[in-house]
């Protein structure tokens, strides 16, 4: 990277260099420390800048982490964005590099994950002539990003990349895509590297907040739902303070898991069917009213009326439009939740929902007691829940748990309750299998001292397991657990229910995924008996290398779900 000169007027810097130098300097200014990629000549200048050129200084400007499949690079950058709450960076080559990234970018869009994707592009002077990997990418990416554009000249690279990072990290967060023609990326220019300003705090409407407090004061059976944006907006402390001030029962969703830790008396996620079915007011914070939340319909069960719904979101466009909401408020979630707590304190009448909360606590305790049977099941073949019965005692409070799969990961969602926020990763509402290895790579870099546990269905494992090679090459120890039932469980059992038979739902029974990991330079073992699960997991945690525990589970045990997401 060529020399940087500070201007006298402000803290901005002038940089002379090629297009890669300019882009990397801006990314660094926005806090990026790692570039995730799969090698391609269209984007070589970005690599040159990331490693610091031929001199290769230590440490380099950015860590350059190369993967085996482009989606993994984007999934890793998305995980970094989720865990750090600032945009992650992925770089892909032109044409198939970009198209391979589409599913991962879509996941980031639907999950509200801050992400910047830089793509190569065929040279300007050859565009339209059929050069290698020539494709006009932005029209493909526009529907699944906050912005998709081509950077026209080398002079535009620094301001365009700066705008991309600002937009990706602004509420409501999401991915931004830029491609740069090869000839422009290799060209040189002098550009201003701007100072990164603090984000603007969007104040909520004070009257709307007061109305929500007043509505809650009329409730007899309220429930507070905390979703991923509570974490992404840095509102986890404010959310817990609000819940405890109101003494309101709480159900967590997505990365909202852990805002109230496992065992908290107000956490009633295991009684969510009762909480959602019988509540009269549902306050949903930082989560879309999608299939995971009954499309926003609460109450109406056991003689209860349909509940009034309050939607608290980080940006106005996130307020649900497909279902009526009683009240809504948009803005910085930390400020909104603190303002709601203050409005509550100012009410003359503040009900206490001790009976309702007690009923939900009792239902939670009953559910936990019932869970003990399957978590300790001593069956042959192995009940998939038994894996979690063995895993839970081994997890540290700051362990990062990643789900990538259907039925097997649904059991995880039911039984794994984080002790801290920011410790649970899943694909979100897009439900994209194959995201797990990338997420594990990102999590290991962001949380170098924490346990990182990747839970894989055997179907999901087949989509990304080759990137264990990436874990090995970059010395990133991760514990992987495969629930291996030899089928696509999320499809097999519903198809049987609908048709009385199933097709295209079987995999090879007992596939030795542990041997695949060993062949790639990691370690692992197969588990066939329930009593062997715990010792195998302990060996995995002690190994300090990528280690896969391949547990053969009963294919006839489906996850007992109440919705299929349609």
From TrEMBL:
A GO BP entry: L-valine biosynthetic process
UniProt keyword Methyltransferase present: no
One MF term in the entry's GO annotations: flavin adenine dinucleotide binding
GO cellular component: acetolactate synthase complex
Pfam families hit by this protein: TPP_enzyme_C, TPP_enzyme_M, TPP_enzyme_N
Matches recorded under Gene3D superfamilies: 3.40.50.970, TPP-binding domain
Family indicated by similarity: Belongs to the TPP enzyme family.
Protein name per Swiss-Prot or TrEMBL: Acetolactate synthase-1/2/3 large subunit
Keywords carried by this UniProt record: Metal-binding, Thiamine pyrophosphate, Transferase
Family matches, as CDD domains: TPP_BZL_OCoD_HPCL, TPP_PYR_POX_like
Domain Thiamine pyrophosphate enzyme TPP-binding: 404-551
Keyword Metal-binding assigned: yes
Record-annotated Thiamine pyrophosphate enzyme central domain positions: 209-340
Cofactor(s) this protein requires: thiamine diphosphate; Mg(2+)
Domain spans labelled Thiamine pyrophosphate enzyme N-terminal TPP-binding: 19-137
EC number: 2.2.1.6
